[in-house]
């Protein structure tokens, strides 16, 4: 795979736009909640649940775009990261989880995943719980925190100096 600096720069710009759009979406929902509560002080004192109408009002077509673009961006980042000697398979696995966290946060959900758990008593294996994943509803603040954490994970990889190519294309086999 040949990776050029232009590929990396394009990916960074797409990611920057998607992250800004998602952050703006959360901000619009928050402003709607403040409006419905009467003031920020009232909202803090008497929290209001986000209902689907608020999400629709804040949407402005961005949720559909983000649901299409974020997976494309993350998959492209995974492809490009294969050309980097410092991004491991573990990092690429984390990107997959970050993708799910980003998409869940759009629906005001929290994405969780867990690995295999082995039940044991000293030297005896009593049973094994398989790996799994789940999504649960959460409030706006928790969804924004989920988004921020996932965004930082993706941003960390797009900002690595090794993702910057000086002097021409980087090839990997």
- What is the number of E strands? 6
Count of helix runs: 6
Distance between the termini: 6 Å
Can you write the helix and strand succession as a string? EHHHHHEEEEHE
* Helix coverage percent: 55-70%
Mean pLDDT: 87
* Largest sheet properties: 2 strands, antiparallel
Radius of gyration: 20 Å
Number of domains: 1
Which regions are unreliable across 5 or more consecutive residues at pLDDT < 50?
Answer: 165-173
Strand proportion: 15-25%
Tertiary shape: flat
Q: Which strand order spans the largest sheet, edge to edge or round the barrel?
A: 1-6
Which class of secondary structure composition applies to the elements? alpha+beta
What does this structure look like?
This protein has 173 residues and is α+β, with helices and mostly antiparallel strands. It has one domain. Helices cover 60% and strands 16% of the residues. The protein is built from 6 helices and 6 strands; from the N terminus they run βαααααββββαβ. A hairpin with a 2-residue loop joins strand 3 and strand 4. It is flat. The C terminus is likely disordered.
